């Protein structure tokens, strides 16, 4: 189920302060995501142990976006485990969103013009003691109709699917890059629970001028480098949170076993000489009658336009 970069200066690119855009209520109307510092928490207090409980009979979804455009990033996923893992227990999904376009408008069958989102999401969930992932490109998502169903919806309220649904001159569809061999989620091997009970996965997203993104999964317990003051051969300061040499690469059991996974960028046909800046953000889904605990941390982000703080 799918419940769910650009140069200014080395000093700015090394900054570890981020900002969220002021978001429409329909992006996160249930206040599932709470942002503080460099971290997006599940729950409304920024407390690791709070989480978010969905008492309804449908899946709740929340979506938040950053204020500035970027190319590359590292996102650390923390998914809270249980003292005794139930092999069938699934509580929800955490997602990192990139290559996001929020400017497109289409008309629904009633003739109303509506804004839709196009984006790529790398999403993780805990399934018992296993960590599973998918990577998909979504086009034509209606941000005002996020809840319920097994997937995002188009402007007519229909769930997206991998074959696409034509809406006027536009396609609302999902393109799957990473999924399970027989289901929606691939399984990541080599993820271990830390002393605080979290399964941690580091996800590195890198853009290339050729118009592709590379998404690579690492063991998050020891993947990112500490801050260093020295410079590399190119004269750039080594940045906090970059994936360090020798970090443990996770295995993938799904429709592909390749790690990293290569994804086409929306701007692939533009013929650019360097990667394009795009919007990015976060996504969470909480299954009915479940409590989701976790967070996503951004210890490193490349090519930030400006140093800003989180939006209140």
Structure in words:
- β6 (92-107) and β7 form a beta hairpin.
- The chain has one helix at 10-13, and strands at residues 33-36, 39-42, 52-54, 60-65, 73-80, 92-107, 113-127, 130-141, 165-167, 170-178, 186-189, 198-208, 212-219, 251-253, 261-264, 279-286, 290-292, 294-301.
- The strands form three sheets. Strands 4, 6, 7, 8, 9, 10, 11, 14 and 16 form a nine-stranded antiparallel β-sheet that branches.
- Helix content is 1%, strand content 41%.
How is this structure best summarized?
With 312 residues, the chain is mainly beta. The protein has 1 helix and 18 strands. Residues 1-25 and 305-312 have low confidence and may be disordered.
Number of helices: 1
Principal-axes geometry comes out as: globular
For the termini, the CA-CA separation is: 32 Å
Average residue-wise pLDDT: 82
Secondary-structure content class: mainly beta
Radius of gyration: 19 Å
Q: Strand count, sense and closure of the main sheet?
A: 9 strands, antiparallel
Low-confidence stretches: 1-25, 305-312
**Helix amount:** under 10%
Q: What's the SSE pattern? A: HEEEEEEEEEEEEEEEEEE
Strand content: 35-45%
Number of strands: 18
Write the layout of secondary structure elements.
Layout: H1 10-13, E1 33-36, E2 39-42, E3 52-54, E4 60-65, E5 73-80, E6 92-107, E7 113-127, E8 130-141, E9 165-167, E10 170-178, E11 186-189, E12 198-208, E13 212-219, E14 251-253, E15 261-264, E16 279-286, E17 290-292, E18 294-301
Antiparallel strand pairs: 1-2, 2-18, 3-17, 4-16, 5-12, 5-18, 6-7, 6-16, 7-8, 8-10, 8-11, 9-10, 11-14, 12-13, 13-15
């Amino acid at each position: 189920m799918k419940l769910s970069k650009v140069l200014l200066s080395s000093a700015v690119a090394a900054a570890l302060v981020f900002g969220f855009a002021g978001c429409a209520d329909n992006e996160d109307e249930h206040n599932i995501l709470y942002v503080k510092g460099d971290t997006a928490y599940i729950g409304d207090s920024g407390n690791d142990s709070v989480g978010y409980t969905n008492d309804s009979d449908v899946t709740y979804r929340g979506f938040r976006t950053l204020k500035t455009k970027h190319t590359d990033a590292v996102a650390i996923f923390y998914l809270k485990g249980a003292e005794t893992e139930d092999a069938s227990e699934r509580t929800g999904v955490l997602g990192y969103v990139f290559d996001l376009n929020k400017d497109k408008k289409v008309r629904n069958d009633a003739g109303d013009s509506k804004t839709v989102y196009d984006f790529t999401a790398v999403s993780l969930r805990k399934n018992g003691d296993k960590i599973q992932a998918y990577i998909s490109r979504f086009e034509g998502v209606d941000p005002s109709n996020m809840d319920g169903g097994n997937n995002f919806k188009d402007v007519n309220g229909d769930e997206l699917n991998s074959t696409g649904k034509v809406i006027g001159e536009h396609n609302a569809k999902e393109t799957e890059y990473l999924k399970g061999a027989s289901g929606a989620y691939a399984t990541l091997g080599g993820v271990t629970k830390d002393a605080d009970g979290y399964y941690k996965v580091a996800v590195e997203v890198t853009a290339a001028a050729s118009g592709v993104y590379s998404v690579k999964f690492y063991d998050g317990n020891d993947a990112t480098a500490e801050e260093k003051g020295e410079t590399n051969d190119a004269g750039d300061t080594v940045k906090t949170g970059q994936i360090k040499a020798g970090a443990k690469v996770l295995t993938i059991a799904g429709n592909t076993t390749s790690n990293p996974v290569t994804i086409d960028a929306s701007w692939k046909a533009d013929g650019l000489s360097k990667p394009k800046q795009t919007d990015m953000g976060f996504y969470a889904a909480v299954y009915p009658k479940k409590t989701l605990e976790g967070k996503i941390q951004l210890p490193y982000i490349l090519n930030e336009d400006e140093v800003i703080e989180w939006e209140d």
